[in-house]
Amino acid sequence: MSLETLSPVVVADSSPSVGFDAAAFDRCVMPTYGRFPLAIARGEGCRLWDTDGKSYLDFVAGIATCTLGHAHPALVEAVTQQIQTLHHVSNLYYIPQQGDLAQWLTQHSCADFAFFCNSGAEANEGAIKLARKYAHTVQGIQNPVIITANASFHGRTLATVTATGQPKYQQNFSPLVPGFHYVPYNDIAALESAIAQLDATERQVAAILLEPLQGEGGVRPGEINYFKRIRQLCDEKGILLILDEVQVGIGRTGKLWGYENLGIEPDIFTSAKGLAGGIPIGAMLCKAFCNVFAPGDHASTFGGNPFVCAVALAVCKTLVRNDLLTNALETRPTATDGITGNRHSIPHPYL
Ligand SMILES: Cc1ncc(COP(=O)(O)O)c(C=O)c1O
Question: What pLDDT band is residue 346 in, cutting at 50, 70 and 90?
């Protein structure tokens, strides 16, 4: 979800942090975010402290990102160990930490190969490029179209903001990238009709890109029957199914991947946010049959460097070793009841 974009409602008892000069900040940082009058100085576990020393329970978690919370010992150890050893080398060389992370991810998902980058948008860009190359070289499609959903969110680069089915994010950024078509989410009849329409004269539909659960679209879970039928359609027609796991992957639904809730497997999926627990990373993963990238097709200077891969691997291993997914499922009812029960007394604009 892109909560950064919502205009914060200033809560009644809040006043700008006195220990921070917001005016100086605003004089030189571009105003792309609506910000609370709050500057965070420190975090530990699920607690944050602002520059005035006031403490908060952190329900935002860096927007689905701080998988282990703040200053978790496993995170601190991985960061410290790797930064003291080797933080960055080019992908001109083999990077063992990248291979180890790819191995963990492929062993813990339906994918066979991974590509690493720095953010969710960049991971989705990679997926879009992979689908287009597959369309041109395998499907024989000259003008590939990727179907996405209304109310979706896939990122802010030009291709991913075009993939995002929300005109408010696209306004003033035209011309958008060609080759996208939008359908209502969870509506199989609309999807089937769109495919039929697009393919009426020549085969065009290369891929369907969806979130397993729409975050920005209102925390709307994908329906199992909808996704099962999509999987069937994709298999019948040779269409790639791409799932955007940037928000819901890495345990956000109590499963490692959102698609595990839907009883299907994607051909390509993307991850970012929580994958390295708050250190910038993106990953695009695919099954062997659609692994059509060759040297030179795609790249990222920082993508998969030793530092971020070592940290991500430590986060992923801790998630499994400490059985945090079971813990999330077990504590979910208490947290949900607590939040919904108190929703009128908690001074938060999003509750
Ligand atoms: C589902 C989804 N995809 C992609 C993105 C973009 O990720 P990033 O901000 O890391 O580029 C987001 C971010 O909120 C998201 O929620």
Answer: low
Contact 344, 136 (CB under 8 A): no
Catalytic residue list:
153, 244, 273
Rounded to an integer, what distance in angstroms lies between the CA atom of residue 245 and that of residue 258? 7
Ligand 1 mutation target, pool 154, 220, 257, most atoms within 8 A of CB: 154
Q: What CATH number has the domain spanning 73-321? A: 3.40.640.10
- Domain coordinates in residue numbering, the chain: 1-58, 73-321
Kindly state the tokens that stand for 273: 């946010």
User: Taking each helix axis from N to C terminus, what angle separates 306-321 and 324-341, rounded to the nearest 10 degrees?
Assistant: 80
Q: What is the pLDDT of residues 296-341, one digit of tens each?
A: 999 999 999 999 999 999 999 999 999 999 988 898 888 888 877 7
The minimum-distance atom of ligand 1 relative to the CA of 245 is: 1
Q: What angle do CA 286, 193, 265 make, to 5 degrees?
A: 20
- Output the residue whose Cα is nearest ligand 1's atom 3: 154
Q: Is the pTM of this model over 0.90?
A: yes
Residues 6+ apart with CB under 8 A from 260: none
